[in-house]
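Try this one yourself first.
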């Protein structure tokens, strides 16, 4: 299941409130736009992850992918990315996936925007 949400406006330093925590159920994706960046939120077990929404290979929508063994699999060519560091599976000519720190505070999921907009 994929949910798309507009970013909430609360902000604390670099952290932005993105959506209610209840909106992210186990292994579901939530799409959001934070400032000018399209991101994807996901849960794998007890952990919350955030990353750029589109695959660095050919821009497939990763919200249509799947999570398995701590990796996010692209729906188009099945490259995979580590949820912790965004490292791309071997053999692809693309950069790693950009990942962003995320946390649950109260009933809200917050994402650190400090790394957004950086080249890499
Ligand atoms: S578009 Fe994602 S692996 Fe090719």
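Now uncover the answer:
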């Amino acid at each position: 299941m994929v949910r798309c949400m507009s970013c909430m406006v609360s902000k604390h330093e670099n952290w932005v409130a993105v959506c209610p925590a209840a909106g992210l159920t186990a292994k579901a994706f939530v799409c959001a736009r934070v400032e000018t960046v399209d991101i994807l939120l996901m849960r794998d077990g007890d952990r919350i992850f955030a990353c750029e929404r589109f695959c660095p290979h050919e821009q497939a929508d990763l919200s249509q992918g799947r999570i398995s063994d701590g990796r996010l699999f692209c729906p188009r060519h099945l490259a995979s990315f580590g949820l912790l560091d965004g490292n791309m599976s071997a053999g692809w000519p693309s950069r790693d996936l950009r990942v962003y720190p995320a946390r649950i505070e109260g009933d809200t999921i917050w994402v650190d925007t400090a790394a957004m907009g950086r080249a890499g």
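Discussion: The chain has one domain: 2-112. Residues 55, 57-58, 60, 74, 76-77, 79 surround FE2/S2 (inorganic) cluster (CB under 6 Å).
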